[in-house]
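The instructor's notes for this session suggest beginning with a concrete chain rather than abstract definitions. Hand out the sequence below and ask the class to guess, before any prediction is shown, which regions might be ordered.
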Amino acid sequence: MPNFGAYSALNYFFWALAIAAFVVEAWAFIDAIIRPAPSYVAAGKQTKQIWLLILGVACVFGLAAAVGYGGQSVTSIFAVVAFVAASVYLVDVRPKVREFKRGRSSTHNGPYGPW
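After discussion, reveal the predicted structure:
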C-alpha cells in the first residue's frame, strides 16, 4: 500500500517542532548563564545554580528529542517537561531578573560605585 508521503510530512513537522523547542530551551539556558547570580535572589526566585541545572537538563532532553536519540520525540514526556521548564524561566523568571539588572545600571559607574 503506497504511503504518499503523509507520514514523512508529519515526521518533518514534528522534527521542526522539536528543533524549535530546543532553540527555546537553549535560549533560556544561555540567558540564565549571562544574568548575575544576586539578581535571582533579589527577585525572590530560585538561585542561579538551580535554574542552570534545570535548564541544562532541559537542553539535554530537548537535543535528544531534536535528533531522535534514544527514541525520544517531541511528544515524549521528558521533551514536554523540558519545554515547560524553559517557558517558565522565560515568562516568569527572566523579566524579574532583567528588571534588577536594569534598575541598577548607570552610565557613570567607577570601580567603587557611581561618581
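Then share the key points. The mean pLDDT is 84. The radius of gyration is 19 Å.
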